[in-house]
Amino acid sequence: MTISDNASIEDLAVPKGSASDGASPRPHWMTRQRLYLYSGALLLVYILTPGVKILRDSWGHPFSFGNNARDYIAFWSASHLALHGHAAHAYSTKVLGALEKTVLPDLKGTLPWLYPPTFLLFVYPAALLPFEPSAWLFFGLTLVAFVVAINAIVPGRISTLLALAFPGVALSALTGQNGLLTAAMMGLGLALLPRRPVWAGVSLGLLCIKPHLAVLIPLALICSRSWRTLVVTGSIAFVLSAISTGLFGVETLAAFLRSMGEIQSVVTSDNKSLLRIPTFFALARQMSIPAAGAYALQAVSACVAVASVVYVWSRPAAHELRAATLVCATLAFSPYLYDYDLTWYGLVIAWYARFGLAHGFRRYEREGLILLGFAPLMGLVVVPHVHFQFLPILTLLTLAVLVTRVRTERHGVKGGNSVAFAKGIPR
To answer: How many C-beta atoms surround the C-beta of residue 215 within 10 A?
Structure first.
């Protein structure tokens, strides 16, 4: 049994009963009215904050979204070079930096282009527009995609409001980054998987634009024997790679492969960036542990992530818990992760809320979802002050909660008390 397609997150305050231990039948303090109130208040803060900044710092000057969402300059500049037939130069720090400074003269240093040619294919038309409107359009389109993905998981009007108020959206606006885009691809792919396996493969295959976020997808599909989705996912990745290589040239692919060393240098040498890298590698380096020890700690986290996916996806489990586990495990796997990638926490929240609506929440689980919702902003507003990168610990704790819930539900099935397990995914 799974949640009805017509079910809404508006029912969050009074979940259906569950046979799982600890599920509370009493109404929760998080009522529908409070969901509207709190999410509306967050949206108001998002709207008023730029206004206050303009009044304080830029009186008489137009507000520039692009000047604040500066990471997007790397996307726009890479597109500009590709449109002018110099795609391989996007991986040249010298060339890219010079172009970035023509648009943002006060930019300190260079924001490198560290993505594969498949991502360059996605942002190829970005520089057809000037930088400012291009930045607005990129944020707007990726925000719409994210909201659609959340509504595909948990339908309902308030889902749209909660998605817009999600702090990960604010972080994407502040950084001009791609977290909303990748979250939308993952979210839609997993939402389509039970009933539209081919289209699910299309969406999941698009994540080849950031391969380190797609590593565990084939493992999950193999464990669940979702062969059609696996074939389509691989085919989409192959086709996009072939198109990007044909369009931009083999030299662009070679330039990307050479830039991998630069990526490693950013992760291992830039101590300032560690505050925004929510991985156990960054946590270890922040504590002055040598790189070898940091990689070892990250390897342990990756092994836990792999084991979790195998455990949850290889045997019967509710699709909601499978999806949330895969998303969370992905965040625990890669050593190269930035705080804007924690927009994926929104998917974990949506999938677990969907499960809770159908089968009930345990005590403090809803409070945990609220904490997880604010986590994407903690890398900017909390970690720098406490000087401790605690976000990977939060990710692993969340993963433990998910695996434990799956284990409990499986034991309930053996005892004939649980209805939390969905029908098999089409193969």
So the answer is: 16
